[in-house]
């Protein structure tokens, strides 16, 4: 589904503080599976996921998504692919304070032009799946950490993406909530979605919900 060929990524290229985060990554990612990227901080995991999710571009190399080379597409096309095909769950959740859980979830879908009533109904279905319907009207700053994470998951699902990308999704959760998140992941793959995540947490990478673990260190693959 996703193929990475000789992906390299530099920051501050040709500057005194030039830094190469990725050094020639070759990787194929299978559809409908959970792939976990494991490695220490600074290993390049998050950088790689931002490239896969069309949030940034590689300095060199090629990214193919469902057989199409998307590496050189104009930004407006990458934006469409990102909105239609990828859902993101960030480590800090990135929810907007002052807005309700429902408003946070439907916000990414407004650019699609779908009627608000349709988005509210879709969000309601997702909230029911995540056992969060009773909190949909609450401002996100009033929610617990586990509830905030489920709002972030709901937001990632609102456009029915094929791929879910989660960066250290359990970093701020206790053991019980981390196990709950992994159970939610199994539901994603049962629904045919592809999941890519990064984690330091053995509870995550050793979970039965994870089909494949890819090790990284110093911008290179150590196991795949």
UniProtKB/TrEMBL annotation:
<keyword id="KW-0547">Nucleotide-binding</keyword>
<dbReference type="InterPro" id="IPR003593">
    <property type="entry name" value="AAA+_ATPase"/>
</dbReference>
<dbReference type="GO" id="GO:0005886">
    <property type="term" value="C:plasma membrane"/>
</dbReference>
<keyword id="KW-0813">Transport</keyword>
<protein>
    <submittedName>
        <fullName>ABC transporter related protein</fullName>
    </submittedName>
</protein>
<dbReference type="InterPro" id="IPR017871">
    <property type="entry name" value="ABC_transporter-like_CS"/>
</dbReference>
<dbReference type="InterPro" id="IPR003439">
    <property type="entry name" value="ABC_transporter-like_ATP-bd"/>
</dbReference>
<feature type="domain" description="ABC transporter">
    <location>
        <begin position="2"/>
        <end position="224"/>
    </location>
</feature>
<keyword id="KW-1003">Cell membrane</keyword>
<dbReference type="Pfam" id="PF00005">
    <property type="entry name" value="ABC_tran"/>
</dbReference>
<dbReference type="InterPro" id="IPR015854">
    <property type="entry name" value="ABC_transpr_LolD-like"/>
</dbReference>
<dbReference type="InterPro" id="IPR027417">
    <property type="entry name" value="P-loop_NTPase"/>
</dbReference>
<dbReference type="InterPro" id="IPR017911">
    <property type="entry name" value="MacB-like_ATP-bd"/>
</dbReference>
<keyword id="KW-0067">ATP-binding</keyword>
<keyword id="KW-0472">Membrane</keyword>
<dbReference type="GO" id="GO:0016887">
    <property type="term" value="F:ATP hydrolysis activity"/>
</dbReference>
<dbReference type="GO" id="GO:0005524">
    <property type="term" value="F:ATP binding"/>
</dbReference>
<dbReference type="GO" id="GO:0022857">
    <property type="term" value="F:transmembrane transporter activity"/>
</dbReference>
């Amino acid at each position: 589904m996703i193929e990475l060929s000789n992906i390299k990524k530099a920051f501050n290229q040709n500057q005194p503080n030039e830094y190469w985060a990725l050094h020639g990554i070759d990787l194929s990612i299978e559809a409908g599976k959970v792939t976990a990227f494991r490695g220490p901080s600074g290993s390049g995991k998050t950088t790689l996921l931002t490239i896969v999710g069309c949030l940034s571009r590689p300095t060199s190399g090629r990214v193919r998504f469902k057989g199409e080379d998307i590496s050189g597409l104009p930004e407006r096309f990458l934006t469409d692919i990102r909105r239609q095909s990828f859902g993101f769950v960030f480590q800090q959740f990135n929810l907007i304070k002052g807005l309700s859980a429902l408003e946070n979830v439907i916000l990414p879908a407004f650019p699609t032009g779908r009627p608000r009533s349709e988005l509210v109904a879709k969000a309601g279905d997702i909230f029911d799946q995540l056992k969060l319907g009773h909190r949909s009207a609450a401002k996100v700053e009033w929610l617990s950490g586990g509830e905030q994470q489920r709002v972030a998951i709901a937001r990632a699902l609102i456009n029915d993406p094929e791929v879910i990308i989660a960066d250290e999704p359990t970093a701020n959760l206790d053991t019980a909530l981390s196990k709950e998140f992994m159970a939610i992941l199994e539901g994603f793959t049962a629904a045919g979605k592809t999941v890519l995540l990064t984690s330091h947490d053995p509870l995550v990478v050793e979970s039965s919900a994870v089909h494949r673990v890819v090790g990284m260190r110093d911008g290179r693959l150590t196991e795949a």
